[in-house]
Write a structure and sequence with these properties.
It contains 4 helices and 4 strands, in the order βαβαααββ. The protein is of the alpha+beta class.
Length: 122
């Protein structure tokens, strides 16, 4: 068989961060869930069993964490920074999908959150 697509993923990583348009959001902060799906060639790692031949998900987490800890007005801005950081750190990346969910957005409704999502390809 031939591998046609392969990914490294982080699912709903929880952060407490200070993103938002309202001053209260930037002062008090809130809970966010971040999911990242990174297209990466895994064939070599499948045979070598060597972490040097793959995208280390712990390193991926640290990149996402660094960007989540930098306050922004818009989640779209945070998403763009995450994608740029991944592209820069891992040149073999073929695609990146990012979802950032604000768990309790200040919009006066009972909801399961609000999120931004994007898919990026080389």
């Amino acid at each position: 068989m031939h591998l046609t697509e392969s990914y490294i993923c982080l699912h709903e990583v929880r952060f407490y961060a200070f993103h938002g348009v309202l001053p209260q959001e930037r002062r008090v902060g809130g809970e966010f869930l971040v999911s990242v799906k990174v297209g990466y060639p895994l064939e070599k790692a499948m045979s070598s069993d060597d972490v040097a031949d793959t995208l280390n998900y712990a390193e991926l987490y640290e990149l996402v964490k660094k960007e989540m800890m930098q306050p922004s007005g818009l989640l779209e801005h945070v998403m763009g920074r995450i994608v740029e950081a991944i592209e820069k750190a891992f040149p073999k990346v073929t695609s990146v999908e990012v979802k950032i969910k604000k768990v309790n957005p200040p919009m006066g409704s009972d909801s399961n959150g609000a999120e931004v999502m994007g898919r990026f390809e080389r």
